[in-house]
């Protein structure tokens, strides 16, 4: 019996700045998890990943991450992805400063 597909988002790191970025439905890279395209079809998820992998001049390490629909957009499922939304933890600026995490 096939396992049910868990919705995904495409995430990577910005090539120049290193920030975590998320692929949006309109083909932009956003630093906001809630702007990520929530992909609910496995074949479409693979196509979006291939699209991301074809941009080595913009991002590094793209991969599919599990996500769930939320009231403001996709929400991370795993601790690692929730942690990545907060940005680097070794200094109090950037995403952590802005969100008061």
Overview of the molecule:
- The protein is of the alpha+beta class and 101 residues long.
- The chain has one domain.
- Helices cover 23% and strands 29% of the residues.
- It has three helices and five strands; from the N terminus they run βββαββαα.
- A five-stranded antiparallel β-sheet has the order 3-2-1-4-5.
- The chain starts with 7 loop residues before the first strand and ends with a helix.
- The model has no long low-confidence stretch (mean pLDDT 88).
Write the topology of this structure.
Layout lengths: L7 E7 L5 E4 L5 E2 L11 H12 L5 E12 L2 E4 L2 H6 L10 H5 L2
Antiparallel strand pairs: 1-2, 1-4, 2-3, 4-5
